[in-house]
Amino acid sequence: MADKIRVTVWNEFRHERHNEKVKSVYPDGIHEAIAAHLRTQPDFEVRTATLDEPEHGLSQEVVDQTDVLIWWGHVAHHEVQDHVVDRLQKAILEGMGLIVLHSGHYSKIFKRMMGTSCALKWREADENERLWVVAPGHPIVQGLPERIELPQEEMYGEFFDIPEPDTLVFISWFRGGEVFRSGCCYYRGKGKIFYFRPGHETYPTYKNPEIGRVIINAVRWAAPVKGPEITWDNVQPLEKLEK
Ligand code: ZN
């Protein structure tokens, strides 16, 4: 890992170009709103990438220079090429962090890393969302109050078909009655994955400083560590084995 944490913010970037309502909330794209939080951190090196760039902006060179990848997608998950997904999976298993946001629950890379359907309930009804911190000692909640209030969001409800998280950091409540595991940590190989629920494209959620704080903290948590080189396959014993 370099001295700085190298973050790539990936966004599908379709709603913001084709939907006037979304464009008015995120005129420069969701990726730029997220990147604006990250750029306040002097030890982060931030770049963005979008679906319609060659190789979706995720060439082998870019992936090799990424410590943590942030993912926002919704209507075009199927357009992400499988060879790029293979490349990302390999990088994650070798230590790259992955932060999957909101509708990214149905992205190819998240479903690949989870191995389940990642299905959930949803409703767009301008409900308020209350995210409760349920892991108060976790690095992702550094500097947060015990709950985050979002005045309007899309509802996501349980059952969310994901593997049991290694650590559950947030649970969301919605006015309509549903609850949701909205901050989920996983280890996969040498890599770390954080799923974070909020961020429907018609609401200014990514301009909320507490949401920005969570994403900054998640980048630090998910960044690779200089761990040991691992030895695989057939090995010699460390002690003399006598019969
Ligand atoms: Zn949504």
Features:
alpha/beta, Rossmann fold, about 30% strand, binds zinc ion
Note down, in words, how this protein is organized.
The protein is of the alpha/beta class and 243 residues long. It has a domain at 5-115 and 184-222: Class I glutamine amidotransferase (GATase) domain (Rossmann fold). The chain is built from seven helices and nine strands, in the order E-H-H-H-E-H-E-H-E-H-E-E-E-E-E-H. The chain has helices at 15-18, 20-25, 30-38, 60-64, 82-93, 108-114, 209-222, and strands at residues 5-11, 44-50, 68-72, 97-101, 121-133, 147-157, 167-174, 179-188, 191-196. Strands 2-1-3-4-9-8-7-5-6 form a nine-stranded mixed sheet. Strand 3, helix 5 (82-93) and strand 4 (97-101) form a beta-alpha-beta unit. Helix 5 crosses helix 6 (108-114). The longest helix has 14 residues, at 209-222. The radius of gyration is 19 Å and the shape is globular. The model has no long low-confidence stretch (mean pLDDT 97). Zinc ion binds next to loops.
Quick structural overview:
23% of the residues lie in helices and 30% in strands.
Q: How are strands sequenced across the largest beta sheet?
A: 2-1-3-4-9-8-7-5-6
The profile of the biggest β sheet is: 9 strands, mixed
The number of helical elements comes to 7
Number of strand segments: 9
Give the N-to-C terminal Cα separation.
45 Å
- The helix content is 10-25%
| Beta-strand residue fraction | 25-35%
- Distinct ligands: zinc ion
Quaternary state reads single chain
CATH architecture of the domain at 5-115 and 184-222: 3-Layer(aba) Sandwich
Q: What is the H/E string?
A: EHHHEHEHEHEEEEEH
- What's the CATH first level of the domain at 5-115 and 184-222? Alpha Beta
CATH topology of the domain at 5-115 and 184-222: Rossmann fold
Radius of gyration from the CA trace?
19 Å
Q: Can you tell me the overall shape?
A: globular
Mean pLDDT: 97
The structural class is alpha/beta
Low-confidence stretches: none
CATH superfamily of the domain at 5-115 and 184-222: Class I glutamine amidotransferase (GATase) domain
